[in-house]
Amino acid sequence: MRLLGAVLAGGLSSRFGSDKALAALDGQTLLDRAVERLAVWCDSVVVVGREAASVPTLPDWPRPGMGPLGGIAAALRHASDHGFAEVLTIGVDSPGLPDDLPERLAPAPAYVADQPVIALWPVNAAEAVTAILEGDGRHSMIALAERVGARAVRLPGGTANINTPGDLARIAPRG
Ligand SMILES: Nc1nc2c(ncn2[C@@H]2O[C@H](COP(=O)(O)OP(=O)(O)OP(=O)(O)O)[C@@H](O)[C@H]2O)c(=O)[nH]1
């Protein structure tokens, strides 16, 4: 079963105050860390929602400004067009994901309870995300999860989430 990894890397980083994907943790940008993490688990990796990256990039669908759902929609459409069965999505802002994340999320669809951008989607979830983005309802990750019947999975020890420079400072090595 071919698995596409997609780093959701758009958004405003308004709480961080600058582009958090390019913030460094232990000498490496959060974006590069996320790409490296997915490369271990997936057959191929894309970055969604920005242009400059070390791997192929996709624009959000149908356009930027739709939030993470626009990134997921683009990744699912790409996966469907290129023969992938499932997509593993993560943000740039959750370093320290467990080594067995894909096993914990299988079978798809499933998402991490406190971080729903971290999720395993079957490619046919593209229909549901398209319907949500084209509809009048909430454009939320939880709306997508409910629509496709995704399970909420709790990770042991919770999930690091970097929203502010303080969040980053708390997990960065001291010295
Ligand atoms: N492709 C894509 N990714 C997004 C978008 N919005 C957020 N993300 C990503 O989703 C993850 C979680 O983002 P958030 O922290 O909730 O949102 P943010 O806009 O980056 O930050 P805030 O402005 O502080 O809410 C991060 O990896 C973001 O890069 C979007 O519109 N498109």
What report would you give on this structure?
The protein has 175 residues and is α/β, with parallel strands linked by helices. It has one domain (3-171): Spore Coat Polysaccharide Biosynthesis Protein SpsA, Chain A (Alpha-Beta Complex), CATH 3.90.550. 32% of the residues lie in helices and 21% in strands. The chain is built from six helices and nine strands, in the order E-E-E-H-E-E-H-E-H-E-E-H-H-E-H. It has helices at 30-41, 68-81, 101-105, 125-134, 141-148, 165-171; strands spanning 3-8, 24-25, 28-29, 44-48, 57-58, 86-91, 110-112, 115-122, 151-153. The strands form two sheets. A seven-stranded mixed sheet has the order 5-4-1-6-8-7-9, sandwiched between helices. Strands 2-3 form a two-stranded antiparallel ribbon. Helix 2 (68-81) crosses helix 4 (125-134) and helix 4 (125-134) crosses helix 5. The longest helix is centred in the middle third of the chain and has 14 residues, at 68-81. The relative contact order is 0.19. The mean pLDDT is 95. It binds guanosine-5'-triphosphate. Guanosine-5'-triphosphate is lined by residues 8-16, 21, 48-49, 60, 66-68, 70-71, 91-93, 117, 163. Residues 5-139 form the MobA-like NTP transferase domain. Its main location: cytoplasm. Its EC number is 2.7.7.77. Mg(2+) binds at residue 93. It catalyses: Mo-molybdopterin + GTP + H(+) = Mo-molybdopterin guanine dinucleotide + diphosphate.
